Amino acid sequence: MLRFDDWTDPVPPAEREVVSLLPDDDEGNPPVLFVPGLGQGAWIYAGHWLGHTAGRGYPAHAVTPRTGGDLRAQVHDVVQVAASLPRQAVLVGHGVGALVVARALGRYPARAAVLVAPVLDGWAALGAALRSNPFGTFPALFGGRLRLAPRQLFSAELPAEEAARHLERVDARPRAELLTRAPLPRPVGAPPILVAGSPDDRVVRRAALDRAAARYGGAPLLFPGMGHDLMLEPGWAEPIDAILDWLGKQLPARVH
What is the tens place of the pLDDT at every residue in 114-132? Predict the structure, then answer.
């Protein structure tokens, strides 16, 4: 459906970076499109989750947000990439990427969706950041880069040198639009939606996980002891296996 703002102020075209890994055999499973969070790219999934997902028989894709793109542009890109895939896709968003997915669901009839550590309430996430890392967060209030501390994204189980390497790649610059609390659209086609995260996440608190899951009629799938970036944790396989197991229950005839 063409919306009024798309007609009067269309999202400008941009070259999209999409990283893909395909299973050895096409089992007819839906493709899984991963959407990264604020300041991150497809690389956050490429290390573990993409290959693992393909190994479980799902075509796996991850899209990097366009440089300088606002929320509407990111939603547009996710919808366009999903629509280009050969089968109806499963959308998986992390952090602010989960907000992008939640908005894309109002326009794209996904087979299913997973919101991982979802930042659906920017004010709550900002408050958590100010409490845990005030000096690193304050510059971002004036358009600067959010200087994240390792424990904001990772558990103590991740080696310090590995955490530092990941943080060097993050260029998080929050936009004011993330603080608007605009209502989320009703998902097209009523797909099954799973919310997953950690009760020890310092970005998305347990109460926020509960609220997000309740919005979609369920309870969150929890992974205690893990940080915000579950896909980079030493125990990264546990959440993606649980997500794919859940998806398998939605498609019992096709998934092994």
Answer: 999 999 987 777 777 777 7
CB-based contact 101:135 (threshold 8 Å): no
Domain annotation for the chain: domains and CATH numbers: 4-121+183-248 (3.40.50.1820)
End-to-end CA distance of the chain: 35
Strands (E), the chain: 17-21, 32-35, 60-64, 90-94, 112-116, 193-197, 221-222
Answer whether 220's CB lies under 8 Å from 209's CB: yes
Q: Which of 228, 200, 216, 236 lies closest to 101 in space, CA to CA?
A: 216
Give dist(CA 55, CA 19) in Å, integer: 15
pLDDT confidence bin for 256, thresholds 50/70/90: very low
Name the residue among 196, 149, 203 with its Cα closest to residue 178: 203
Rg (CA), the chain: 17
- Residue range 207-255, pLDDT digits in tens: 999 999 999 999 999 999 999 999 999 999 999 999 999 999 988 644 4
Q: What is the pTM of this model?
A: 0.90
- 28 close to 58: Cβ distance less than 8 angstroms: no
Question: Edge-to-edge, what's the strand order for the sheet holding 90-94?
Answer: 17-21, 60-64, 32-35, 90-94, 112-116, 193-197, 221-222
Which residues are CB-neighbours of 210 under 8 A, at least 6 positions away? 219, 220
The three-state secondary structure class of 56 is coil
User: Tokens at residue 231, please?
Assistant: 């896909």
Q: Is 104 helix (H, G, I), strand (E, B) or coil?
A: helix
